[in-house]
Amino acid sequence: MNLGEKIKELRIKNNLTQSALANMLYVSDKTISSWEVSRTIPDVDMLFKLAKVLNTSIYNLVEDNYYNALPLEIEVKLKLDEYTFNKLLNLIKTKEDNLKEVHQIDTYFNLNKKEYKEVLRIRNENNKYILGYKKENKDKSYEEYESIIDNPLNIERILIALGLKKIGVIEKKRIKILYKEKYEFAFDNVKNIGLFLEIEVKRFDEDNLNEINKLIELLHEFNLDLNLIDSKRYSDYLN
């Protein structure tokens, strides 16, 4: 569900007509209609007003996974077209000179737990192998742990012997750039899937909620449409 659809759903849930919502926000009916069909999007200030009027949080309004302020990882992932991807990459490259290119081949394993969504991953990054574990908690926060390994083939054999299911492989070329010594921009060209941008908070100056606010504002700084936010993880594309 994109931002426009969420606004419409929450407006109806709160028994508001487009006209009533427009009056509460001091905008026109046409503005509400334009948001709901994703022709335009509200700015950051209006997002906070919308969240208050619609009895929700800005995190839930923009992206469900941010509702509980992820304790170990705060990031946003967007799926981009080629023009936007290259334009933004070139823009960031002119602002920062700490570019790093890596080739990642990720083999995913599903633990098949009903209570939580858990994934194990063996990553080959420029011939360095890393075993990673990620768990989505009940409150939609995430835990993630990684460890370097020296024999990925034997690790894979052990995981399969323990009954884990091999989901598949995601291969991508990633360009990482640290922006303002705070945000890591990861430009991903994912084989057979598409182009993505992940922006992760690497230095926490405030509490998690304010860091998420800043991350959303950063998207507006670069004129990135909030409807481009992709809630899928890469492993979800294998299902």
What does this structure look like?
By secondary structure, this protein is α+β, with helices and mostly antiparallel strands. It has helices at 3-13, 18-25, 29-36, 44-53, 58-62, 82-95, 152-161, 208-221; strands at residues 75-80, 100-110, 117-125, 128-136, 142-149, 165-179, 183-190, 194-201. It has an 8-stranded antiparallel beta sheet. Strand 4 (128-136) and strand 5 (142-149) form a beta hairpin. The radius of gyration is 20 Å and the shape is globular. Mean pLDDT is 84; it is low at 64-71.
**For the report, how would you describe the main beta sheet?**
8 strands, antiparallel
- What is the overall pLDDT average? 84
Q: Multimeric state of these chains? A: single chain
Helix share, percent: 25-40%
The geometry reads as globular
CATH architecture of the largest domain: Beta Barrel
CATH superfamily of the largest domain: Hypothetical Protein Pfu-838710-001
Task: Provide the domain count.
Answer: 2
Over the alpha carbons, how many angstroms does the gyration radius reach?
A: 20 Å
Secondary-structure element pattern, one letter each: HHHHHEHEEEEHEEEH
Strand order of the largest sheet: 1-8-7-6-2-3-4-5
In the CATH scheme, the class of the largest domain would be Mainly Beta
Count of helix runs = 8
Structural class based on helices, strands and sheet pairing: alpha+beta
Write the layout of secondary structure elements.
Elements: H1 3-13, H2 18-25, H3 29-36, H4 44-53, H5 58-62, E1 75-80, H6 82-95, E2 100-110, E3 117-125, E4 128-136, E5 142-149, H7 152-161, E6 165-179, E7 183-190, E8 194-201, H8 208-221
Antiparallel strand pairs: 1-8, 2-3, 2-6, 3-4, 4-5, 6-7, 7-8
